[in-house]
Amino acid sequence: MFVFEVPGHAYYVVLTSGNLATSQSILHRIEHDLQSPNTAESLATMGDMSDAARYVGQIGAGIKNFYSHELKQGANFDCSVILGGQIQGKPHEIFLIYPEGNFIQSSPYVPFLQIGEIKYGKPILDRIINENTSLERAARCAMVSLDSTTRSNLTVAPPFDLLIYETGTFRASHRARMELNSPYYAELRKCWGEGLKSVFDQLPLFDWELPPGP
Q1: Is-contact 96 113, C-beta < 8 A?
Q2: In angstroms, rounded to a whole number, what is the distance separating the alpha carbons of residues 53 and 48?
């Protein structure tokens, strides 16, 4: 998770997943453009969030294509990005940017976006998240989703970065890094695991498990 603040203009949060070299190159280019006064385009010049998504997508696709053509080693240089934030005078928005540079936006029908290892943590998000879910409830759901993923995929593990942004504030309302032994994360894992077992024990029995009638 990376935050780019443009005082008086915008607040951006970037999440990356995929090839590390591509991810680092994208972030370096974003930072370089922000710090270069003569750069024609940067996150400081975007008119709205879709412009910012297009800009980041073009950077990512260009870097991926460069590595693929120049190195020619058959490696996968894909990098997916989630870009969220707000520009002054515009609504807050969030986008998923594909390695090819195209992107989709969240909506009432797609209230959350995921990158990386998504399949193990998606079921809980599908059951809980909707357009009216509070930020705190959504954050807890996201943490449970990540914990579920760590249970099923050894390549995913803490630390997990958490950031809550409230529209119009242009700053993080809350930001935390959860280590495996962080008190809150440890308690959340314990409660979620015990809760699942308790609910499972309350599931209806099969007909053949029921005691015979009189």
Answers
A1: yes
A2: 9
pTM > 0.85: yes
Phi, psi of 28 (to 5 degrees): -60, -40
Q: How far apart are CA 140 and CA 124, in angstroms?
A: 11
DSSP H helix total and E strand total for the chain: 5, 7
d(CA 32, CA 12): 15
Q: H or E element: which one contains 95?
A: strand 93-97
- Strands (E) in 8-88, as ranges, are 10-18, 79-87
d(CA 51, CA 53): 5
Closest by Cα among 167, 35, 165, 27 to 88: 167
Type of residue found at 11: Y
What residues contact residue 185 under an 8 Å CB cut-off, 6+ apart? 143, 147, 158, 160, 178, 179
Pairing of strands 160-165, 103-105: unpaired
pLDDT, tens only, 96-140: 999 999 999 999 999 999 999 999 999 999 999 999 999 999 999
